Amino acid sequence: MGRVIVCGSLNMDVVVQSVRRPKPGETLLGAEVAFLPGGKGLNQAVAAARLGVPTSMFGAVGDDAFGERLRAFLADSDVDTLGLQVVPGQASGLALIQVAEGDNAITVASGANSCFNESMVSAAPTRDAVWVAQFETPLQATDAIMRAAHQAGARTVLNLAPFQPCPAALLASIDVAVLNEIELAQATGTEIAATSPVSAVVEACRKLRVQGAGAVVATLGRRGAVVVTADDAVAVPSIEARVVDTTGAGDCFVGAFAARLADGASPVEAARYANVAAACSVERLGAAPSMPAAAEVAMRLRSA
Ligand code: RIB
């Protein structure tokens, strides 16, 4: 079995659940709040580790109580946290997540995440590892880290979320790009909506491959996922889920996908598995706490 190395963000998610979103200028009473570990990097690391694959995380937290809680949560989830740096004088990343009417809206204060840089990564890439990154930490660091991992022969998975324009050399060092419909539209300048036909999604994925990514996986929420490689385009159907909160479902997909790749699966096999893991995660509140264990995913796979 290989291992998963996640480089990226950690946030304390302040999850506020209300019956509806307040209008601009309105004060809405009656909400409930939960402080839950999150951040795309942390979520992806927890997803991979809970599925039983050795996982390490590199990232930055502030010298505050939230930073301590995030580190402790990762350690409890069996993620190696030796690569976490504490940035003096900085607050840990914080995400304000409003959950209402079956949907969420997220505002992020990056804090220490914006201080993360490539010199904070002490591990040397090895061929048996899958390196994972997203776009919630500085692009320059992601670029340097993923290019070094690729050059050393490790496999690389980049989650282009939240989307920002990506240097061509970075994309050329990515084995698998994972992104949702909105990010795919932004990355390719294509009109893609939740109702766009799968053929349009496949065409946009192919555009991203032409830009340099080895394979492209588009996550389509209730519609499952699409995997486009050099040889093939495969639609992976979704499975039934009782949706409570979709926050972190994309991160669950990425972490589970990387875990299966590290275990020797092909991108299509990994996407099928990750799709089921993500369906399990939406049935609980929160991002990182909702990541499933391997036994739960195995049970859902059997009944799917
Ligand atoms: O993808 C979900 C994550 O986005 C949340 O955990 C929040 O921290 C933001 O980073």
What would you say about this model in short?
By secondary structure, this protein is α/β, with parallel strands linked by helices. 33% of the residues lie in helices and 25% in strands.
Number of strands: 14
Quaternary structure: single chain
- Main β sheet profile: 10 strands, mixed
Q: Distance between the terminal alpha carbons, to the nearest Å?
A: 26 Å
Large-scale geometry: globular
Order of helices and strands: EEEHEHEEEEEHEHEHHEEEHHH
The CATH topology comes to UDP-N-acetylmuramoyl-L-alanine:D-glutamate ligase
Question: What is the name of the CATH architecture?
Answer: 3-Layer(aba) Sandwich
Number of domains: 1
CATH class: Alpha Beta
What small molecules does the structure contain?
Answer: alpha-D-ribofuranose
Helical proportion, percent range: 25-40%
CATH homology-level superfamily: Ribokinase
Strand content: 25-35%
What does this entry look like structurally?
This protein is of the alpha/beta class and 304 residues long. It has one domain (3-303): Ribokinase (UDP-N-acetylmuramoyl-L-alanine:D-glutamate ligase, 3-Layer(aba) Sandwich). The protein contains 9 helices and 14 strands. Strands 1, 4, 5, 6, 9, 10, 11, 12, 13 and 14 form a 10-stranded mixed sheet that branches. It is globular, with a radius of gyration of 18 Å. It starts with a strand and ends with a helix. 50% of the residues are buried. The structure holds alpha-D-ribofuranose.
